[in-house]
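Tutorial, part two.
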Amino acid sequence: MAKSTTPYISNPLEILQPSITALRKNPGALIGLLGVITVGWLLAAVPWALWFFQQTDIFSNTFNLFLISAIALSLIAFVVSSLLYPASNIVLVASAQDKKIGFKEAMSQGFPYIWRSLGVTVLTMLAVLGGLLLFIVPGIIFFGWFILSPYVVVHEKLGTVDSMKRSKQLVKGRLWELYGLISLPTAASIIPFIGPLVSFVVSIIMIPSTAIRYVQLLEIKPEDRPAVHWSNYLVLVSAALASSVSSGSNSTINLPTDLKQ
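Running the prediction step on this input gives:
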């Protein structure tokens, strides 16, 4: 087994630098793949927004045009995302391993895993939604268990269910690290005044972070890993506070007219 390109990093803040390095490794392929996926969904969001805020009669031609356009563009975005998603994960894993890979090579390698990746996405969504609807906490746990499944599919070449089982095996005992990673952008938003900007920048930087975590969990034996760093818990608390503050600032209380006077 190849030696990991970086030592095992439990502190989510310390993964910022390896993430930047990974982003620089294959910028063309990464921007091309993720850019097309993002643009596709943004284009689909426009008619949905126009349809939602349309104030005319629901049977008007304009209203129906927005709805039809929204559905059509969403289907196109879904198909494009499904085709490019395995290739983007191949690029992320390669970047995490400090390997070069081009757009065409990634597409060629990712093509055989389109259906497996789609299966992982669908089953994970069903598991998470089911868990959230039942008791909330199981949904959060399922998300952590299966978050590495897309990388397992394209790197270890396993089937849909086996990839999800493998992901659960890899993250055993390290769930808090994964939650710390994905919560870091939200936690950054708690910074006064510049929080939203910092959060946006951190979210871009952290794009390869889960792939880096996957590579480290794959290549470094459990006995050689450090204990889960305390900063993961701090990040989660900060993210919860930031979400609470955001929810409070966006909520309004509509008082009866006689109480306002």
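The chain has 13 helices and no strands. In part three we will examine how such features are distributed along the chain.
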